[in-house]
Amino acid sequence: MLISTIRDEIITEVGGDTSDTGLATNVLQFINSALRRFPLWTRSRFLYTTKSGTLTSGQYSLTLPSGIVNEREVYFITEGNRLRIDKAPSNDYFNDAFNSTATGKPNFYRIIGQTVEFDRTADATYTIYFECSQEKDGLEATDTWTGDTTTVEVLKDGAKYYYYSDYVEDDEKGKQKLALFKNGLDELDSKYMATELGSHIDEE
User: Fold this and answer.
1) Counted domains in the chain
2) pTM
3) In the β-sheet with 68-78, what is the strand arrangement from edge to edge?
4) Does 52 lie in the same domain as 31?
């Protein structure tokens, strides 16, 4: 489904005119504004991707790849094996484990700002992979929506919240759409936990 189709559905459903180019531009912005909330408020498979960075031999840090909101797993591959790097449970734990004079494969990591630090200096150059939820922004009308139809309806509720609260200043309808938007994001998160985590729920 094209973003333009979603945009036009929103315009029609709020009683607007799809030939109104000014309104169309605003609704596209509302779609992007709503979409920015998805990685912060919910987990859903369409938000996840894998990004990578290079940990150079003799270094113990790298720049965090762009667009990462939350990492689900960090790992590298060596001799055909995928080896997980654990997130340090606290800064104190990481500081106790950190040894810049030791060399070897990374065991723990922490993220400070846009820097990923590891517990030891790399003994070789590693490609570090980040399974993560990613920023969603900058959609154009000609782009294709990558989620399923249930996520389309949640997105539309989010865009309508911005339409009613910011564009026509109808606070009551804005509150209604915000409630629907948040409920939809909660449902997507519940669906993620059921399908990805099964009966064991891990807080991320």
Assistant:
1) 2
2) 0.67
3) 48-55, 126-134, 68-78, 81-87, 108-112, 115-118, 61-63
4) no
